[in-house]
Specification:
- This protein is mainly alpha-helical.
- It has two domains: 45 residues, Arc Repressor Mutant, subunit A (Orthogonal Bundle), CATH 1.10.10; 127 residues, Tetracycline Repressor, domain 2.
- 74% of the residues lie in helices and 0% in strands.
- The chain contains eleven helices and no strands.
- Helix 1 crosses helix 2 and helix 9 runs antiparallel to helix 11.
- The longest helix has 27 residues.
- It is elongated, with a radius of gyration of 18 Å.
Length: 182
C-alpha cells in the first residue's frame, strides 16, 4: 500500500503496471497478484485505508451530535481535515477519474459514503428545525455535498487558503446557505 500511495503522490500510478508496483514494493509480482489481482484491487485497498482515517471516523460520530450546529461545524472541519490528509492521493485519483476505471470506482464509492453521512446530518438539522425557512432537505443536501466536495476543497487550497481558512469559509457558507446565517 505504501508503494501505491507513493506512486499516486508522485503522479505515476496511472502509468504504472502491476509489475512496477511490485518492484517498487520490493516484492515478487506473484506475491502482489496473490493479494491484488489488478490495479482496481490496489485502488480498492487504498479505499479501505481511507475507512480508517481518523477524520473520516470522526465525521461518522459528529453527524449525530445532539447539538446540530456543533455537528455542522465539526463535520465540515473533519471533512477538510480528511481531504487535507489524503490530498496527495486524491488529487491523482480525482484527476484521472474520466479515464481510469479504478479511480472512477473509488471516487464514486467515496461520494456515496459522503452523501450518506451528509444525509444524516441534514436529517438531524431538519428534525431540529434548524434548516433555513423554505429550504428543502433535498436542496440542503445538494448544497452541503457541493460545499464538502473534494473539488471545493481543492479550489480553495489552490486559491492559497490554509486548511483552517478553508474550514472557516466552508462553515460560514454552510451556515448562510443552510441555516440562514443562524
Amino acid at each position: 500500500m505504501a508503494a501505491v500511495r507513493k506512486l499516486l503522490a508522485e503522479g505515476k500510478f496511472h502509468d504504472a503496471t502491476v509489475d512496477e508496483v511490485a518492484k517498487r514494493a520490493g516484492i515478487a509480482r506473484a506475491t502482489l497478484y496473490q493479494h491484488f489481482g489488478s490495479r482496481l484491487d490496489l485502488v480498492d485497498a487504498i479505499c479501505d485505508t481511507f475507512d480508517a482515517n481518523p477524520a473520516l471516523l470522526e465525521i461518522r460520530k459528529v453527524v449525530e451530535l445532539p447539538d446540530p450546529d456543533a455537528a455542522l461545524t465539526d463535520t465540515i472541519a473533519n471533512t477538510v481535515r480528511f481531504w487535507s490528509s489524503e490530498h496527495a492521493v486524491l488529487e491523482q485519483l480525482y484527476g484521472v477519474v474520466a479515464i481510469d476505471p479504478a479511480a472512477r470506482d473509488l471516487v464514486d464509492r467515496q461520494r456515496a459514503d459522503r452523501r450518506g453521512e451528509m444525509q444524516r446530518l441534514i436529517e438531524n438539522l431538519d428534525a431540529a428545525g434548524r434548516l433555513r425557512a423554505g429550504l428543502s432537505a433535498r436542496d440542503a443536501l445538494a448544497m452541503l455535498m457541493l460545499l464538502t466536495s473534494y473539488e471545493s476543497f481543492r479550489e480553495l487550497r489552490q486559491a492559497g487558503l490554509s486548511e483552517r481558512k478553508v474550514a472557516e469559509n466552508l462553515e460560514r457558507s454552510a451556515r448562510e446557505l443552510l441555516l440562514g446565517g443562524r
